[in-house]
Amino acid sequence: MTKRKIGVTELVLRDAHQSLMATRMAMEDMVGACEDIDQAGYWSVECWGGATFDACIRFLNEDPWKRLRTFRELLPNSRLQMLLRGQNLLGYRHYEDMVVEKFVEKSAENGMDVYRVFDALNDPRNMARAMAAVKAVGKHAQGTICYTVSPVHTVDGYIKLAGQLIDMGAESLALKDMAALLQPQPAYDIVKGIKDTYGDIQINVHCHSTTGVTLVSLMKAIEAGADVVDTAISSMSLGPGHNPTESLVAMLEGTGYETGLDMERLLRIRDHFAEVRPKYKEFESATLVDTDIFSSQIPGGMLSNMESQLKAQGAGDRIREVMAEVPKVKADAGHPPLVTPSSQIVGTQAVFNVLMGRYKVMTGEFADLMLGYYGECLGERNPEVVELAKAQAKKEPIEVRPADLLKPEWDGLVTTASTLDGYDGSEEDVLTNAMFPGVAPKFFAARAEGPKSVAKTPAQLAAEQAKAAGNQTGITGPVQYNVTIAGRSHSVAVEPA
Amino acid sequence: MTKRKIGVTELVLRDAHQSLMATRMAMEDMVGACEDIDQAGYWSVECWGGATFDACIRFLNEDPWKRLRTFRELLPNSRLQMLLRGQNLLGYRHYEDMVVEKFVEKSAENGMDVYRVFDALNDPRNMARAMAAVKAVGKHAQGTICYTVSPVHTVDGYIKLAGQLIDMGAESLALKDMAALLQPQPAYDIVKGIKDTYGDIQINVHCHSTTGVTLVSLMKAIEAGADVVDTAISSMSLGPGHNPTESLVAMLEGTGYETGLDMERLLRIRDHFAEVRPKYKEFESATLVDTDIFSSQIPGGMLSNMESQLKAQGAGDRIREVMAEVPKVKADAGHPPLVTPSSQIVGTQAVFNVLMGRYKVMTGEFADLMLGYYGECLGERNPEVVELAKAQAKKEPIEVRPADLLKPEWDGLVTTASTLDGYDGSEEDVLTNAMFPGVAPKFFAARAEGPKSVAKTPAQLAAEQAKAAGNQTGITGPVQYNVTIAGRSHSVAVEPA
């Protein structure tokens, strides 16, 4: 029997450590695994995105562009893959088209191959320019469907969106399930529907493992025709992260599908990161499995954000009210998927509504969302709330693509960057400062000091273990010390009170 | 569409804490969840077995029979389920038939409903008497297939074994995957094969989650016709334990199957055990997912046993040799599944072979295994090694059912028990001492002192957390003390060296 080959995208260098250890992994902890990753037979290696870029300059004093070049050098046989937030690039606002083109050009020059282009609202207009730019430099443009669950999101709607992405020239499609909400049956139905409607377009499926159910969703997606699935090596898997790569391989054994991955390489990659993971333990979340999101629709990260906002206001006990408010706010906004930045915008407004009365005070971002400045959602926006937004923000709603309102800004960005201490004159630096203007200046100034890992050293880990072991044993009898004070020596016994 | 109802067996009261925290959970930590468990709509509640019985008397000073009666009282609407090691009962040797009957009678009287009867070698003769005894008292006899992977274990072989169990009067069948080896395709093939061959006999599927793949196996088993699957509430799930109950519910949403479980009850059960779990943290294994067993065929518990045996001999560096020896020893013994007690017997012999030369020294247990004293395996035993066993053990091989060689022993067991301090005169006590003669006398003598939990108290946990927080801050500068010695006061500065 000829088995159908299922491609695998390895996430350990990007989304796995982003989800499990707050994106803190330093390049020095990845280098040692690269040869095995490069030879294991993956379809692609995800290694770059907004949070890794941000963490590089914010916490690790590492140049993210240099990190990309190092990956290119160490992974010569691999497709390097990144996550690109459409017209937002890696930042939190819309950029004018020339900036989008510059970013794609420079990242391609530095080694990127596959661009997974997405938009938080699933608005194809926000993805179009980035997709076109990727195609213009001859790289792989992957159009993305962000999966969510709402009264207006249907299998047919996702199939229609797939068609729009294909019309925009997508070389492949990604079904992206950032909240582990994608259950087996819809996974099957969406993939099958796309294949039946549009023929053999490549479909990649990306699921988190938070709810404990999505390896089954990958199985059903594969049965429905999915071509590539995303996993993370087992020692960097599960919890808010992803399904384990080795488990996927085992899952398909004996079926009509196979990954072709080299298991010996996988085990070496696993062992490498099993050594690395404890060094970042302080950044790990304790969540192992959480199915609450199926009823609350609230991703874990969004929930903890809202909790800290409430606590800051001395209203930590009102989280249940806020959780009940979120679906209302989400519906008023036209049912956006809850992913950066829409999750923060909806969550903060829900907190404001509970604390100050519904829409008594609107954040600027929520008003923008209601007025179309982030793009279009699938659902209709509540017209009454749109009126309130107009009044509070003193702005008119727009129907055009948000970036159409932007003036050319590249030259200004170059000028701004050139005033900064440590700016190296490159277009890469201009882009870094454009996307992270609050962080980049400090990074440029300190860059010459070189990377600074936030991981524990082996010595620190050993000391902690020894201390823990000591704590367990405990001190039961008196301990003698010789203490010399004012030239006289005394024997002192110390014991637990 | 009418959905097919899938029953669920909740494992949290037995196998979940056995697998995750060395069976240490005290009854007091279970009581609070019982009402929700009883009302959630499970097919059965597994709550008793060899390791929980052993842990009760060895570590918790708790009477396991009393625990059973308490479950009966607190779970009036539930089928209580236990795991019974056939002719071994809950102990480590074969018992004469009357003891088997007494055990089944007394456990039924105390409240047991469903008996999952298994044998480590899958020898139906070792299960027959226990099954018959269960039927004689009008309870549910579930015949068990222990799943393993070997050159002689085939889908057809498992289907044949299912037929033997049905012929013995099994009211249902369990497919038991103690090592998380059951991949989706064989899960489907075995269940489908049994249903196609024997019609609508109830099939329960029990998988551990160690390899990260078995929730998919449960899905495929359900698609093939499985009726009941085993899971553990999410806060006591994953790792060497089991798939999360809530994830199973989510997995089936939208499909042609449903569990009918009450999600609000499940969330309360989850929250209860989320509070309990940290109290037993010191007993937890760090393993989250481990797919090594697919290549090594060695369950995790067996591996750590062999490692400690080697270390005790100052040969900790020879574990790779021992791992390579295990498949050879297993093959010589006729490919027994590796589960208690065969895993220990094969593992120890592999250690002996590496340290002293192959079969130069045989353990008494391994010789017995080679000579048929544990029953028959599916594969043929290596005749050369059988000859060595005869010579070393000075015993002849047997072909009869091992328990056929035993003389009536009940009266002797009563006499032995009646000599013990604290023996309460009950047949339950006779059985306790018969199964755990090395532990029961001490337990009887101390029983009046009542249960002793080994869990941390909330106060201890809080103190540890405070200490950990203190450790993180660390002492960076000198601390001043006033020390009075021999009537004179001194100011002393202490700082880290």
TrEMBL record, chains A, B:
It is an enzyme of class 2 (transferase). GO terms for molecular function: methylmalonyl-CoA carboxytransferase activity; pyruvate carboxylase activity. Keywords: Transferase. One of its GO terms (cellular component) is cytoplasm. PROSITE patterns: PYR_CT. Its EC number is 2.1.3.1. InterPro entries: Aldolase_TIM, Carboxylase_cons_dom, PCB-like, PYR_CT. Residues 6-267 form the Pyruvate carboxyltransferase domain. GO terms for biological process: gluconeogenesis. This is Methylmalonyl-CoA carboxytransferase subunit 5S. The lineage of its organism: Bacteria, Bacillati, Actinomycetota, Actinomycetes, Propionibacteriales.
